[in-house]
Amino acid sequence: MSKKKVLFVTQELNPYTEISFLSDLARRIPHYAAGEGFELRVLMPKFGIINERRHRLHEVVRLSGMNIIVDDEDYPLIIKVASLPGARLQVYFLDNEEFFKRKAVFQDDKLDDFLDNQERLVFFCKGVMETVKKFGWSPDIVHLHGQITSLIPLYMKKAYKNDPVFADAKIIYSVYNNELSHTFDSRFLNIAAINDLEVDDLDVFKVGESINLDLGAIKYSDGIISGSEMNNEIVTKYGEENNLPFQISPLEIDDLAQASVQFYKTILEKVEK
Question: 5-272, what's its fold?
Fold first, then answer.
């Protein structure tokens, strides 16, 4: 029996970015998943704070060279790769000089959110879709971590719904305490409406005049996981309201990592029934 494939897309990953609890959790889950026989590919943004020399990143020429259109502008997508220390696992980094060269993640030195975070999010999510297509590798599970991944469920279920690479993928979205949409404005819905999407397809991201990235992602997901104990209540609420399988967070990080892998099996069992 062939291994089940997991596309693991994360906003953070230790040791490349050590920003929050997510960095450590994202390091542990692939370890347990590989131990349970899953085949994984890991993708993340190549933020400017990542030291390419120290972590031995190098460009994957066969995957680079695509242009990603964001708000009618072309931006080159560069793919780099490194081996995750202590694991037989490669991490693919999505890079672009305009969006990710700055020596920061989502905020400047004054802790103000970058005004182009919405463009950066769209670039990354569309870049993930095009990179996986170029892999020619069809995931069974897509596990998303952090709000920079929040458009991927919509894109997979709508914009790329006829692409055979994603035909059988089940999407799991993990909810954390990060909030990326402070500087998002009404343009977000237009910028994010790629391919043949209509702005109306993005209405699920709107709450009044605000943008709720988690809610929009959940609406197009097949299961949700609470990324920390603080999110258990809201994940339970989202899961029950949307009739979705959900996993609340235990106290210990290793317990949560193992529970996440068990949740993969739960989702796959539902498919096979």
Answer: Rossmann fold (3.40.50)
